[in-house]
Amino acid sequence: MSRLGGTEPEVGTGEGQLAIRLTHVTLRLGGQTVLEDVTLAVPHGEFLAIIGPSGSGKSTLLRVLAGLLRPQEGQVKVASAPALMFQDDRLLPWRTALRNVALPHDLGAGGGLEAGEALRLVGLEGYAGYYPAQLSGGMRARVALARALAQSSDVLLLDEPFAALDALVRERFNAELRHLHDKTGRTTVLVTHSIREAVWLADRVIVLRGGRVVDELSTRGEGRVTAYTDGLEARLRNLLGTGDSTRLRPDPPARLDPGLLAPLGAVLGGLALWELAARALGQPLLLPSPGGVWAELRATPGEFLSFAGATAGVTLAGALLGSLAGALIGYPLGKSRTLERLLSPFVVAAQSTPIVVLAPLLMTWFGFGRVPAVLVSALSALYPVMVATIVGVREVRRTDHELFSTLRASPWQRLTRLELPSALPVMLGGLRLALSLALIGAVVWEFVSNQPGLGFAVNQARAYYDTPRQFAAIALLVALGVALYLAVTALERRVLRHRRAQ
User: Fold this and answer.
1) Which site from 6, 165, 250, 382 is most exposed, i.e. has the minimal number of CB atoms within 10 Å?
2) Strand 47-51 to strand 83-85: parallel, antiparallel, or no bridges (unpaired)?
């Protein structure tokens, strides 16, 4: 297959030239012939409709034109890299409507309409700042059409773009699509199951059956004059009015979640039971009361804050280093199952080795400074982020990868604009666990090395049988762990607030 940008006289972007030429194209998939000996010529500026029964190869033909599939036989020549609008909208949930339309420009495939102008043409300029989850299905379809119009191409491919819409809204979209074609003059190829839609919109209709072109009809003239205009159907249309898809998805009303009170109630109940147990036992050496622990904290607040700051610093540094290493290791493993199978024995062996065993070895290699402390914490945090990255990268929708392929995205653009944003929810879940494990690693290091920190405070108090001080240090460790967990949870809610199920 060859794809030439106007290097042959018959294929080009000017008037009187061909925008598309297929010559004896045959495509086989899974041992079956999907397209057979297809020959087709589409002049510049023509609106061509392709109809046929399900499984006749209509969508496959569009993918051949878009460069997503390569035929085994024949030639495909297209005047410019085409813009393809899929059956589903394929909007990125973390981008607003305007930024979704601007995606081709961001990836270097722009050059068509400016994003704001494309949104205006489809009647959504007032919704530029809305996210896909806030838009109705019809509005998302119009945003997807605007994104195709923003792509640098004189050829627009439409794969049943409005099939999921109700009849009235679809009818309105057809009118808008016809108006856009008249205004932009782009060569348009539409796949549809609707005979009436094909007749009303297209200049020419070809019929596919069994992967072959079996007929070709011109629809100029009587087809467009009579479609949607005669008889009982026209009367019903006047009664029903014009369909409109411009409706926002309503947000649920804001209300206090009773579940938020449950953790507070559990904490208060736990403190009450602790107080009752301490009084019943009457042995502060074995179980000090909450009041006794609070008094211990108030006796030397500066020292406890210093210990908490040291532990928090090592935890955050270790979590950052471990998460970064986990993501860097997890990404290639997620992309290549062969590499994962090759390295998985070493990864499992490293994770199975208790960190308390590695801490003395790191002390021998690096001494008692901050470096081994951060390394112990980082090794504890690495595994959950690595696994989350592998899972997140593999859960990126195949359809989104296909969209980026049509936009000729580079591997770096695919990583930064698709894979990492898509994997972010899973990676944030891994980060929550990583912070907890990083805190455990920091405490293990303080136990082993006797370096200042809350772990050291617990160890020191145990040596002097100072149980209230032990409980005070443990309480601060619990509070630090909860604070780190809540911080990641708040970040997760803020970052993912627009990714509700659509």
Assistant:
1) 250
2) unpaired
